[in-house]
Design goal:
single chain; alpha/beta; eight-stranded parallel sheet; 19 helices; 36% helix; binds zinc ion
Length: 478
């Protein structure tokens, strides 16, 4: 940010008035959201509004930051961004707010958020045995409850895009339940359809659920907000997987024209996994690689040459001792890179701001250098960079006229954010879900004045709790 912008921001922050103290006030738009008994709601209409008087971080290289700026949204599209724009529609004063693009999450096993913080302290209670055991007892409704809980948490904490990495597709109905939950919450997303937990690595995944969704995807996509991909086991799980098992899965995704996503080289010890993937021509612009912790210099070059994107998840990679993600190395290569939650069973709270902070911190720790990675670069990874890695950057990821309106407003008038200093550092280092005042996805206001407009959180949590009780009962777990 330029020094003048910075100074005017600080002046603006100092002048915080009553409007800033109470957040963006609740409007008639909120009343439009008709709740139903299931805790979901008809999504709010896309209207016309102008969020004004904000510190706008566009995350666009040419527009930069705009102190005292405004964003005009009409029918889901950003019409104008700037200081002296005419605006239109409902006026929303955002004095004391930082307005920025919604965060873009790039790999999250939302189906197992029911097991939040369930991975214990002994090997037999670790993440993998826990989710495999309980995952095999999940019904489609359990998947729905878990994914809806995750998507609601995502909106509440400022994510406007999530990648639902669904590797517990036990039937077509399980996959459909995951997609339905995403649609009911109104978030922008990708559903990547995978295999069922507990399936032997000697067996190819049933392609029927993916094919069934692909055939009629338009009707599932929530007017194009959700796209379809395939979660793939790849060539390695506990041991190598045979080509006659993995190749038909890969080929089918290519035939259907859906992007592919795969965990590879997930730990420091999982070496020599990227080279065989590259040599077998199983990487490309349509392939997302998860973790790639052990990539050596040659393998980093293979990733770059193939055009594949990468998703890292320092919140889980550090938690389970996979190692440090190679963020700087990938950025130096120009590899499209996003940051992800991975699983709430390990991360607990799924606040992507906190994970982005860990991404920056792990780079600085590895380098022994306070200045290795800037706060703004970390925020870029969580917005336009993540959008690029998921192939949605022409639609979202920055606040630019013509893009779809996926944006958030952060209220800085809170004990954990006051007093305001450098906006990029503040947003990265201090933002909690309670500071996210407003969330807009595709022009729909899904959170306002700190409250979800289309979802009843109490119902979402109660129904998820009941679903977990059922899974525990069927698993004979006490
Ligand atoms: Zn994962």
């Amino acid at each position: 940010m330029c020094e003048i912008c910075r100074r005017s921001f600080i002046r603006g922050a100092a002048a915080l008035g009553a409007a800033g103290a109470t957040g963006i006030s609740v409007s008639p738009l909120l009343a439009q959201a008709r709740r139903d008994a299931a805790g979901g709601a008809r999504l709010p209409a896309r209207g016309e509004f102008t969020i004004a008087n904000a510190y706008v971080m566009t995350m666009d290289a040419s527009l930069g930051d705009i102190a005292g700026g405004a964003v005009h949204v009409r029918n889901g599209e950003i019409v104008a961004v700037g200081k002296d724009i005419a605006g239109g529609g409902q006026h929303m004063d955002a004095n004391g707010m930082i307005v920025m693009p919604g965060l873009v999450e790039t790999h999250w096993h939302m189906w197992n958020t029911l097991f939040r913080s369930f991975a214990g302290d002994k090997p037999e209670e670790g993440y993998f045995p826990t989710v495999a055991r309980f995952g095999q007892q999940m019904t489609p409704d359990d998947i729905y409850q878990s994914t809806r809980l995750s998507a609601a948490e995502a909106i509440n904490s400022g994510m406007t895009f999530v990648h639902s990495w669904c590797h517990n597709v036990r039937s077509t109905a399980h996959a459909e339940a995951d997609v339905r939950a995403l649609a009911d919450v109104g978030i922008r997303a990708r559903h990547s359809c995978g295999w069922p937990q507990g399936m032997p690595d000697t067996q190819s995944a049933d392609q029927a659920p993916l094919e069934s969704l692909a055939k009629d995807w338009k009707s599932w996509s929530n007017e194009g907000l959700i796209d379809l991909g395939m979660s793939w086991r790849g060539q390695f799980r506990a041991g190598p997987i045979k080509p006659e098992v993995y190749q038909p899965e890969f080929d089918n995704a290519r035939k259907l024209g859906v992007p592919i996503t795969v965990h590879v080289a997930s730990t420091r010890r999982a070496v020599n996994q990227i080279t065989p993937l590259y040599n077998a021509k199983l990487m490309g612009k349509d392939v997302q690689l998860i973790h790639t912790i052990s990539a050596n210099a040659d393998e980093l070059e293979m990733i770059r040459a193939s055009g594949a994107s990468v998703s890292v998840s320092p919140g889980t990679e550090l938690r389970v001792g996979y190692g440090y993600p190679q963020i700087s190395e990938m950025l130096a290569k120009g590899i499209p890179l996003g940051v992800s939650i991975d699983t709430s069973a390990l991360t607990g709270s799924s606040n992507l701001f906190a994970v982005l902070k860990l991404a920056r911190d792990s780079e600085n720790a590895r380098a022994g250098n306070e200045f290795k990675m800037t706060a703004r670069k970390a925020l870029e990874l969580g917005t336009i960079g993540g959008a690029r890695s998921m192939g949605v950057d022409r639609k979202v990821g920055s606040l630019v006229p013509g893009k779809r309106a996926d944006l958030i407003a952060i209220n800085t008038n809170a004990l954990n954010m006051g007093v305001v200093t450098d906006p990029a550092h503040l947003v990265l280092e201090a933002t909690g879900p309670e500071n996210v005042d407003t969330v807009v996805v595709d022009g729909r206001i899904l959170k306002r004045g700190g409250k979800l407009t289309a979802i009843n959180p109490g119902t979402v949590v109660a129904e998820a709790r009941a679903a977990l009780a059922g899974v525990r009962e069927r698993t004979k777990w006490r």
